[in-house]
Design brief:
Mean pLDDT: 75
Largest sheet: 8 strands, mixed
CATH superfamily of the largest domain: L,D-transpeptidase catalytic domain-like
Number of helices: 3
Number of domains: 2
Helix content: 25-40%
Length: 196
């Protein structure tokens, strides 16, 4: 198999994986606890955050997600922490997410004029007044689904599912993404082939 065919095959497998797993995840089901009355859907295609309560749209906000070089992670996560004073540059509120390969969150900004643009280092920025409203509504444990492009899947030198770092980083990211879905290593997660 030629190198270009290997790359296309890997891209195909990745897209197939993404298409198959969301239905599997929703079929697993969840308890209807207080935390799960709310659900956050982040649309990176339109730079919007949608808050649902018991399946109905409660609020919609414009956001500023990650740049191409530092994209916002795509997948299913949960709010694991909340803070009113997380640090300078993060606005007035912080909602931390359980992304297994880094520190990511939904937070305010001291640059509200950049909302709507892809400018962050991977976090989801909101206007302070918007993140303050979100902060008061959602408890720790709220599910968060981030939908959007897998940036830089193929640039001619390798596979880069969520940023840069070569095939080793791609394989590790893929395994961690699978682990976040299944809660344990799954056979399909260990099959990302080596390029080269």
């Amino acid at each position: 198999m030629s190198r270009s065919h290997q790359h296309l095959f890997i891209v195909f497998l990745t897209l197939l994986f993404i298409a198959i797993f969301p239905p599997i995840c929703s079929a697993l089901g969840t308890d209807q606890t207080k935390q799960e009355q709310f659900y956050i859907y982040i649309d990176l295609w339109h730079n919007e955050l949608l808050l649902f309560k018991k399946g109905k749209l409660e609020a919609k906000f414009k956001i500023a997600p990650g740049k191409n070089e530092t994209p916002t992670p795509v997948g299913h996560f949960k709010v694991i922490s909340k803070s009113k004073d997380w640090g300078t540059g993060f606005g007035t509120r912080w909602l931390g997410l359980d992304v297994p390969w880094g520190t990511y969150g939904i937070h305010g900004t001291n640059k509200p004029n950049l909302i709507g643009q892809n400018v962050s280092a991977g976090c989801v920025r909101m206007r302070n007044r918007d993140v303050e409203k979100l902060y008061e509504l959602v408890p720790v444990g709220t599910p968060v689904h981030i939908d959007g492009p897998l940036n830089r899947l193929f640039d001619g030198t390798g596979l880069y599912p969520f940023g840069t770092g070569g095939i080793t980083a791609a394989r590790e990211t893929f395994k961690q993404f699978c682990f976040s879905i299944f809660g344990r290593p799954a056979p399909i997660c260990l099959t990302l082939p080596v390029i080269g």
